[in-house]
């Protein structure tokens, strides 16, 4: 992967200056497979650079205002550009490089071009077709005729077609009954995207004019024009994770930890064993806030009635919990700006009701005692005595897997780090005695999935 090699070379060389400070010896050479005077640039493979200008010397614009300065404009062969982007100092270049590295992959079938702004694959036909033939052609190669779904896609199509001699067909035509135009795929038809003096009465089908003034142009449906096709690549890593015997796992956004794509709608269905519920945390979590989102739902659903919550870059690490053994996570992105993404960690927990005792005395044990406790236990115990009294707790038998299976003791009815007073584990705990400072206390017993012992036995009274 040539761009990845370039990226590594940048880091090894260790440039830290501005672009203007580099000498000729510092110039990096990028080999190009073609050098048309305007339009497409192929970098040894599927990646296509679309340039908005082609001056003989100086500035190159890549999809808008960000600028890459070039040192030469040879008619064929090598392109020189002034040194490496300073990633730590330039968010644009970092974002650009990440998008380029992603684009070198196999997002699209052979012969198709991936566009990182729309997250779609595009191709033109070498042959010319009538409108109806172009629709059939696109369908026959696994795509559909291009219908413009957003202004960002319109801009991308301008870059793709501005040097074309013949305007390609779009998947749009006139409804001769209503005299209104519509997209064949049912998406919204943008009436403000016509080129100058359009729509005319000169036909019922639509081609795309990339040269300025760019836009949609009415064309006779019988004319012979190139087919213009697109298909959505499988960018999502949607998956069903977990299963009836799986208690934990991880999943992540597409492209993590480099960069995710625009226009995603990915689903992750988590299943856990029967009689369990699921907890999930997201860390790291870096997305475009307000525009890209992760939503968590109860069960195999994405309805608002089953919505659990939404993590945020401002509260990374927050956990979410289902009530049953199935959870659905949906990751959606808009048409612009991406980030590194996220890593999710999930765990299944047994649905074990809290054991509560009150009065003057009682006994408590680990599950199944004196037989071995189960795997993945998470049992909570609550003890309370009369107001003004204290709980006197004694453990006379204790045997667990050291470090991994443990009993936490809290000086409150709430289990938290601030109320935790003891963590007991291993085979050298008993006898153990503790008196609570209040008239209530709680305990939590946790076991993992590997080794089980008989657990523990405790009795309590008030004092």
UniProtKB/TrEMBL annotation:
One of its GO terms (molecular function) is serine-type endopeptidase activity. Residues 117-230 form the C-type lectin domain. Transmembrane segments: none annotated. SMART domains: CLECT, CUB. Residues 1-18 form the signal peptide. The keyword Signal applies. Residues 236-349, 351-463 form the CUB domain. PROSITE patterns: C_TYPE_LECTIN_2, CUB. It comes from the Eukaryota. The keyword Nuclease does not apply. PANTHER family: COMPLEMENT COMPONENT 1, S SUBCOMPONENT-RELATED, CUBILIN-LIKE PROTEIN. This is CUB domain-containing protein. It comes from Caenorhabditis remanei (Caenorhabditis vulgaris).
């Amino acid at each position: 992967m040539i761009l990845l090699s370039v990226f590594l070379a940048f880091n090894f060389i260790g440039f830290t200056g501005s672009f203007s400070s580099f000498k000729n010896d510092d110039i990096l050479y990028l080999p190009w497979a073609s050098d048309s005077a305007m339009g497409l640039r192929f970098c040894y493979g599927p990646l296509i650079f679309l340039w908005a200008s082609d001056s003989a010397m100086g500035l190159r614009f890549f999809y808008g205002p960000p600028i890459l300065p070039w040192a030469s404009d040879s008619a064929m062969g090598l392109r020189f550009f002034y040194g490496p982007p300073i990633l730590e100092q330039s968010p644009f270049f970092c974002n650009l490089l990440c998008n380029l590295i992603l684009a070198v992959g196999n997002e699209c079938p052979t012969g198709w071009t991936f566009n990182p702004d729309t997250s779609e694959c595009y191709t033109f036909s070498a042959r010319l077709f009538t409108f109806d033939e172009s629709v059939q052609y696109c369908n026959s190669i696994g795509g559909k005729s291009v219908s413009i779904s957003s202004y960002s896609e319109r801009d991308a199509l301008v870059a793709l077609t501005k040097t074309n001699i013949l305007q390609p067909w779009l998947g749009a035509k006139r409804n001769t009954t209503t005299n209104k135009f519509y997209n064949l795929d049912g998406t919204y038809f943008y009436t403000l995207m016509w080129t100058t003096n359009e729509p005319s009465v000169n036909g019922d089908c639509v081609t795309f004019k990339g040269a300025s003034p760019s836009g949609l142009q009415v064309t006779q449906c019988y004319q012979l024009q190139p087919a213009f096709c697109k298909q959505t690549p499988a960018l999502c890593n949607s998956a069903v994770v977990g299963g009836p015997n799986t208690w934990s796992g991880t999943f992540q956004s597409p492209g993590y930890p480099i960069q995710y794509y625009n226009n995603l709608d990915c689903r992750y269905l988590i299943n856990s064993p029967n009689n369990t519920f699921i907890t999930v945390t997201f860390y790291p979590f870096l997305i475009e806030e307000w525009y890209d989102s992760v939503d968590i739902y109860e069960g195999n659903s994405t309805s608002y009635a089953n919505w659990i919550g939404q993590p945020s870059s401002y509260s990374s690490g927050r956990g979410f919990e289902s009530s049953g053994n199935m959870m659905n996570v949906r990751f959606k992105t808009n048409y612009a700006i991406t980030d590194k993404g996220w890593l999710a960690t999930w765990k299944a927990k047994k649905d074990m009701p809290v054991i509560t005792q009150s009065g003057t005395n009682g006994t408590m044990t680990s599950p199944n005692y004196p037989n071995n406790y189960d795997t993945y236990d998470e049992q909570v115990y609550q003890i309370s005595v009369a107001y003004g009294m204290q709980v006197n707790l004694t453990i006379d038998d204790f045997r667990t897997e050291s470090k991994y299976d443990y009993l936490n003791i809290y000086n409150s009815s709430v289990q938290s780090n601030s109320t935790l007073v003891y963590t007991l584990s291993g085979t050298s705990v008993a006898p153990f005695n503790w008196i609570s400072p209040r008239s209530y206390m709680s305990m939590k017993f946790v076991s993992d999935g590997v080794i089980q012992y008989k657990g523990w036995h405790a009795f309590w009274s008030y004092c």
